[in-house]
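A quick aside before the break. I want you to see a complete sequence-to-structure record at least once, exactly as it would be stored in a machine-readable document. Don't worry about memorizing anything.
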Amino acid sequence: MRPPSYKHVADELAAAIRAGTLPAGTRLPPHRALARQRGIAVATATRVYAELAARGLVVGEPGRGTYVRHPSGYDGPEPSRALPVPRVADLSFNQPLADGQADELRRALRALSTSGDVEALLRQHPPGGRRQDRAVVATYLLERGIDAAPADVLLTGGTQQALDVVLRALTRPGDVLAADALSYPGIRLLAAAHGLDLAPVPVTPSGPDLDALDRLCRARRVRAIYTMPTVHNPLGWVLDAERRARLAAVARAAGCLVIEDGTYAFLETAAPPPLRELAPERTCYVASLSKNVATGLRFGFAVVPARHAAALTGALRTTTWGTPGLVTAVATGWIADGTVARLERARRADAAARQETAREALAGMDVTAHPASYSVWLRLEPHQRPDHVAAVLAEEGILVSTGDAFAIGPSRPRALRLALATPPPGELGPALRRLRRAVDAIPP
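That is the input. The structure line, written in tokens, reads:
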């Protein structure tokens, strides 16, 4: 009699989970025990659990085993946003806005409506943007320590599109992309979409484990390294000059690309020079105006080595060509007249104040955060499973992001990422205190 296939075993366990026979929180047998019980190979048992995880039914916790996931759907990379009670706070996503930004937009649109050639806003701009618009962004980037020619700046519809065109143009399916073991969730989605082998780099309190990265690059042919050296998402670190130089040296020795994400870099004014300045011949710097101006503006950019500019321009041509003329006019106008610089100053002060609120509300809990960022990484107690905690908080009207949304590789952290930017300032403290009471009340 042939042993059951992994699909058959996975289907049986999935049916038991959905029927409630295996309730949320049940610890499933270790891989070897499942293999003995079912008469299958250990490798097949591993495929069973991988299949159940892909269906969103189980979650693996390093050193503790595989557990049936809470069915609420409030955890993971695509959590439910339909709360069962009136919303108290959205701590799952950062959408910072300042008072008066709507009026800023009205003024900008009125000014555009009376400009000399308003019809130009209806014409298709070249892929990557017009030279004069690229020049505005190049001048703006000087404040971040990046000295790039306008020809090396490509305008995109946000950071995510910038990442997409870099990977589309400069990688091939099967290439190895190294990324921090905890990182921006969008890179995981893009790696899957482009068929890349995403290799996690262990993290330390002060940055990626560069010795591990070096060993990875020596053992495998890494095509690119994705990194956030300035105000990392979700851990908030800022790599010092020595670590940046080491990372650039590892990439240069391995002959691989560096993809530097500077989305949150505006929050740290004293950072060492970007990797783009240390290894300009191999670094693509991507960022946007999503967190310093508005998430809905969808205006970003990629600063690329000159030898890759044509390939990335071609990738833009085959997708969306870049940014619409109206968005580009608003964004470059705000950069040129100082509105973006003013908003960035306001964001830094606002983020620092929100971090102070979070430190007071969460005092004594295991948290990691940059002192002027919009995120807190909250590690949970051993008995507190992130999927269950997210469901408990949803009953309190609070949305959060669970740590597995940021996990690169199989390891799933027992943690929450709290986004601080969206609630009104006066509501953030009460929401965090409510969160703390709910988490503390979860029994062992």
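Two observations worth writing down. The chain has 15 helices and 16 strands. The chain has a mean pLDDT of 92. We'll return to this after the break.
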